[in-house]
User: What shape does this take?
Amino acid sequence: MADPVVRDAGPDDVAAVCAFGAMHIRPHYTPLIGAAAAEAQVRDWWNESAIGSAVAAGLVVIAEADGRVVGVAQLGRDHVVYKLYLAPEQRGRGLGVRLLDALIGRLPADVDRLHIEHFAANERAGAFYEREGYRVERVEPSPTGDPRLAVVWRVRPLVA
Assistant: This one.
């Protein structure tokens, strides 16, 4: 497999990003948060409307290898990383850091910190973010009462 290229997502990438989410989010999250919650993630956040709006706003970067999307990262308008996902074969190869760096490069110069959120059950993501300098700021319990669905908010200061 070729070394992935990280680039801005464009309108022509929306369908491929949605397909990436449909392919990878359910199997990733089902063992962590349950099938219903994993399905809700795909339905609510990986649809053409949500992805298309984020792409149009310049908030999505992708990693592409051999003509297919192998990673997706998305900022929120509030300078929070809401998506950072890699195809399983790409994990542990530095691509997550490259995608984060691409998002950081799109932030306004006066932004001095970056926030990231993830489900408490996603311990692998938590360990990655911890290694990258994102410290736990707070944990929001899930309205469902399910501790797996608590949202862990992390923050990292950005050096100018």
Summary: The longest strand covers residues 68-75. The chain has a mean pLDDT of 94.
